[in-house]
Amino acid sequence: MLAKINTSSSFRGVSKTLVIFQFSLNVHCKSPSYQTGLLWVKKVGYYQLYKPKEVADDWIIIADESIGIGQEKVLVVLGIRRGNIKFDRPLKIQDLEPLLVKSKENWTGDMIAEQLRIVKKRIGNILYAVTDSGSALKKGLREAGINHTNDLTHSIAIALEKIYKKNDEFIEYTHKMGQMRFKLCNSKYAHLIPPNQRSKSRFLNIDIISNWGMKVLKALETNTVSIEERKQLLWVKEKQPLIEEMDTIINAVKQISILLKTNGLSKKTKRQCINILKQYKTGKMKIFKTHMTKYFEDNILNIQKRGEHLLCSSDIIESTFGKYKNEISKNPMSGITDLALIIPALTINSSREEIKKAIDYSTVKELKQWNKENLCESLSVKRNLIFPKKKNEYIFQ
């Protein structure tokens, strides 16, 4: 079971790996099938969701919703008590308690507020929630009476988007990168092509764009680039001021991110961040400084007591969604199924006793009931109603 949770291997891959180990080590024992591994993971996820949680007055939650194929969205809420946060390292998934995993075709603010009230009844008082700036989430938190702290990564991305989205130089630079990638991808100059640009999260990954530009500028100053290669790259030189400006901002982003994701947002770390931005006095760098200063001022209002550190990053839930999406990508047309239980399963303590307790905690019937109550009808079910499989139908791959 841990072999699945702690690696990116598929359920079938884990099962076959165990068989290979048996042959290699000359060990004769039964090896669990991939269906057994899948069932164990679901049982562990169910256990993590419903095992008794501490009722306290200092809970902090991280919430987000992720979209799959179609309109289905899964809402996930993870929680941790303030006293359990170690502000000397970023959060790990095992630090958190899963509080909610539920899907709907459309989450409104009222629906989210209703679910958050249920969560509050189970765990007690929630000091604040860390989320992105999604309007439905913000409304849900507001109606549930929960303070909101904006996620640092998304706030930085929003600031960069405001600076560069309508900037003609940036638009021309990214357009030429796209053209170069398309033109050279099947040529002898394919080793020069820029990285692929993700349209949906371009401003979350702007460092990829600036890093490539900086590498090109440095390469053009050396003798390692041939005349033909130089011709393909010379256009980047024209964008040097833009690239260097982006690189300067990204360096500040890295310093601020490391500081706040490790130590949290406090009056002390706020001063340290402002000190990092002090040198930014002109152009877009000044605009970035203004956006970030406003972020610090708005969110530091959630500090309740002297010397408190605020959790201000929801990266951990993003990485958890990443692992879940890696699983559903193997069969994306199934939509959101009870495999969503792998999300809470990732928070399990790796002790043998805890895992055994988790597997024995629920029955297959209870898992089916959970599926019925918490997930909307999956795409595979809808598709099979319209296009039923014929008996003895074979699919050739």
Question: What would you say this structure looks like, in words?
Answer:
The chain is an alpha/beta fold and 397 residues long. It folds into two domains: 181 residues, Nucleotidyltransferase, domain 5, CATH 3.30.420; 161 residues, no CATH class. The chain contains 17 helices and five strands. The protein has a five-stranded mixed β-sheet with strand order 3-2-1-4-5, sandwiched between helices. β4, α5 and β5 form a beta-alpha-beta unit. α8 packs across α9. The longest helix is centred in the middle third of the chain and has 24 residues. It is globular. The two termini are 29 Å apart. The mean pLDDT is 87.
Briefly, what is this?
This protein has 397 residues and is an alpha/beta fold. The chain is 54% helix and 10% strand. The longest helix has 24 residues.
In terms of topology, how is this protein built?
Layout: H1 2-5, H2 11-25, H3 34-50, E1 56-67, E2 73-81, E3 97-104, H4 109-123, E4 124-131, H5 135-143, E5 147-150, H6 152-164, H7 168-184, H8 206-220, H9 227-237, H10 240-263, H11 267-277, H12 283-299, H13 315-328, H14 342-345, H15 352-361, H16 364-374, H17 379-386
Parallel strand pairs: 1-4, 4-5
Antiparallel strand pairs: 1-2, 2-3
Query: Number of helix segments?
Result: 17
Fraction of helical residues: 40-55%
Global shape:
globular
CATH class of the largest domain: Alpha Beta
Q: Residue ranges: pLDDT <50 for 5 or more in a row?
A: none
Please identify, by name, the CATH architecture of the largest domain.
Answer: 2-Layer Sandwich
Q: Rg from C-alpha positions? A: 25 Å
- Give the number of DSSP strands: 5
Arrangement of strands in the largest sheet: 3-2-1-4-5
**How many discrete structural domains?**
2
What CATH calls the topology of the largest domain is: Nucleotidyltransferase, domain 5
The end-to-end span amounts to 29 Å
Indicate the mean pLDDT: 87
Share in β-strands: 5-15%
Characterize the largest beta sheet: strand count, sense, and whether it forms a barrel: 5 strands, mixed
**Strand and helix order:** HHHEEEHEHEHHHHHHHHHHHH
